[in-house]
Every structure is written in structure tokens, then in C-alpha cells.
Amino acid sequence: MHTRKMVNNIKISSLIILILVLFGCQNAEQKIIKIIEKDFGLYENENDSIAIELKLTEFQNWKELLERTEQIVCNDSLPKITIENDSLIKRIYLRNPCWEELACILIKQKNTIEIHNDTINKADENFYPLDSLPNILRRDIENNGKNIRLSDSPEKLLFYISYDNGGIENLPKTLDKLTQAYERITNKTDINIWLNEKFDIPPPPPKEIIEIE
What are the pLDDT tens digits along the chain (213 aa)? Predict the structure, then answer.
């Protein structure tokens, strides 16, 4: 009787251990979150080895961020900003040119969309809130030259992003929304983003008034 009781106890203990192991494995599986990595603005013939991270917390203002971006591109490197959450690592590569090596770049205004202080600007005439981004992008991306005031083609579309000096902390949110909308509409990640300095366009001079006697 004693031996049979010991055998039964061993069986019960083994069953309890098995249940605990299975329960523990199930919990472990539930805790595993697949992390997705995406690169935006990186060309097919490029790799991350030429990239230099822009850590936004290291900059006091927007001007410092632009200066550092310029230094990186003029040293034949590629500035990038990384955005992370629990399930996604998003690396955004900036395509700013090195102005030291260029006299000027001719870019048609209709091929650009500017985002300044979370406000979307098209041709310095139409202003939209940031929540309108998907609709504004779709209109330009799907235009293909039909409307002469919109982008000629998706490949020529350029995004300028600028902030006043206190707006650096909003940049990751704007980049996240922009890349998300662009990928959803085009199913691509070849987005062309420049960090930019906002230049206010002065109003046209008043027309000369000629008095006729």
C-alpha cells in the first residue's frame, strides 16, 4: 500500500509539473512580440554603413539640427533618424543635399510638399492640418501630371520639413505619420525627405499707381 501511494504521488507531482511547464511556455509565447524593421529613403544601391544617426535630444534648436545634417551629407554620409516602439523600428534616411558643393538646385514647386510646424503647405497657397496628410499625399502621388499645379510623378515628389526653433520634439511624430501615409498609398519606402529652413516669402510689391490727369 505504501509503495502504491508513493507511485500515485509521483504521478500527481509529474502531472502538476507538466501543467506548470505548459502554462509557463504559453505565457512565454504570449510575451514574444515580433519586431519589424523598416527603412525609408534608402536607395537600393545603398546600405546603412554610410548612415549617421541624428539623436534629436542632443540638439538645442532646429538650426543646430540643420547644421549637423549639412555636416553629415557634406562628408559623404547619410543622416538618419530612428523611431522605435514595442513592435517597430523605423529608420528614416534624409536626402538633404550638400549646399557647399552646389550652386543651386532647380526644383519645381509643384513637385514639393512642405510641412512647417505641423501644418501642410502646398505652393505657399493652400494650408492644411497634419491630419490631412493622407489625402494631400494621395492627390499628388496619383496626379501623374494631369493637374499642372500638382506633382508631375511620385518619383519627383519631395517633402520639406521645417520647424521653428522650439519644434524638434514634434519631428518624430511628423516623420512617422508621413512615412506611414506614403507607404500605405504607394506600397513603397523610397520617400524623399529634406529637413529645411523655413523661408517666408515676402508679399509682392504694391503696383505702381499712375495718375492720369
Answer: 555 545 455 555 555 555 555 555 555 545 567 889 999 999 988 889 999 999 999 999 999 999 999 999 999 999 999 999 889 999 999 999 998 887 677 889 999 999 999 999 988 777 999 999 999 999 999 999 899 999 999 999 999 999 987 789 999 999 999 999 999 999 999 999 999 987 554 444 444 444 444
In angstroms, the first-to-last Cα distance of the chain is 132
Select from 27, 29, 89 the least CA-distant residue to 53.
89
Which of 186, 199, 190 is closest to 144 using CA atoms?
186
Longest dimension (CA), the chain: 132
- Give long-range contacts, CB 8 A cutoff, 24+ apart: 119-124: 123/149, 124/201
Radius of gyration over every alpha carbon of the chain, rounded to an integer in angstroms: 27
Count Cα neighbours of 84 within 13 Å in the Cβ-side half-sphere: 4
What is the model's pTM? 0.78
Which residue type is seen at 170?
A: N
